[in-house]
Design brief:
Blueprint (H helix, E strand, L loop, with lengths): L1 E2 L2 H13 L7 E2 L5 H15 L5 E4 L25 H26 L3 E8 L1 H4 L5 H21 L4 E8 L5 H4 L5 H8 L10 H12 L10 E4 L8
Parallel strand pairs: 1-2, 3-4, 4-5, 5-6
Helix pairs in contact: 2-3, 3-5
Length: 227
């Protein structure tokens, strides 16, 4: 279990262990390849085997997301603010995949790479253009990896999510009028829950999805539909 903030990784790992799982907390910055290599090695050292399932789930605007520009037209944005979006949402996926794949191949038992993106990467979000581009790039990477890794029985897929009630989003949805306006965009009149996303990730990590690769699966309450 990785997080940029160790205490958050420790909290999630503790919850997993209390429910009968086996997890260790690891602090790593996914935008830094050396940090990611150490994370992968720590997992191998602890579990005694390579990574079977990689879930690329980091997705924000960097270590200090409140500092980035949001809602500014792209042509008025400061290029210096792009790094936060691209670093986590694209470079993080590149780094983690690059570090894990050689071990997956060497192990010889196949594997799963699952990247959580956003519907912004599928349909575009005018208020988040760089974020949209980074998420689209991550999805494109999964399709490319699916074609090159299929021979090793390693699948690569994306899960595209819409607004999901993470702790960060909950604080923004206290206003009933704002929530009402947001829900107009959803066929199913609620926002997503982390469990909605987790269920799809679990399916893609299982043997039930063994013949499915290079795809992007929306979990979005009908925010958008496949073209």
């Amino acid at each position: 279990m990785n997080d940029y903030h160790l205490e958050r990784a420790e909290a999630v790992a503790k919850e997993i262990n209390q429910q009968g799982g086996n997890a260790i907390p690891i602090q790593a910055d996914v935008t830094d390849y050396t940090s990611v290599e150490k994370m992968i090695q720590a997992s191998i050292d602890y579990f005694g085997k390579s990574v079977d399932i990689l879930v690329n789930n980091a997705g924000n605007a960097g270590a200090n997301p409140d500092s980035v520009q949001m809602g500014v037209p792209f042509w008025e944005s400061d290029p210096k603010t792009w790094d936060g979006w691209i670093g986590v949402n694209l470079m993080g996926v590149l780094n983690c995949s690059r570090a894990a794949i050689p071990e997956m191949i060497q192990q010889g038992n196949g594997g799963r790479i699952i990247t959580v993106i956003s519907d912004a990467g599928r349909v575009g979000e005018p208020h988040l253009p760089v974020y949209s581009a980074a998420k689209a790039g991550a999805s494109g990477l999964m399709r490319a990896l699916a074609k090159s890794l299929g021979r090793y029985n390693i699948t690569a897929n994306s899960v595209a999510i819409a607004a999901t009630m993470t702790p960060r989003l909950e604080g923004r949805m206290d206003d009933e009028e704002r929530m009402r306006k947001v829900l107009k965009n959803y066929v199913i009149r609620r926002l997503g829950q982390p469990s909605d996303v987790a269920n799809m990730v679990l399916f893609l990590a299982s043997e039930a999805s063994g013949w499915m690769t290079g795809q992007t699966y929306p979990v979005n309450g009908g925010y958008s539909f496949n073209q």
